[in-house]
Amino acid sequence: MTIELQVEGMSCQHCVAAVTNAIREHDEAAQVQVDLASGRVTVESAQPAETLKAAIDEAGYTVTNVASRPATSASGAVR
Q1: pTM (2 decimals)?
Q2: In its keyword annotation, does this UniProt entry include Metal-binding (predicted)?
């Protein structure tokens, strides 16, 4: 599942690493992309969105929005 989170409080590469590590503590295989400028974190993970939101909150950042959608394959088909 692809989960998009809007995260406030990230301002540097240390923040990116902290958020990425917080997510990977719950799913080592998670694919995490952080857009520092927009505050958007996109995660490909089997974990529920609430679990990832809680992990980011525990790391000291504020999640203001969460959106989930099924994962798609390279061909665009829903998995």
Answers
A1: 0.85
A2: yes
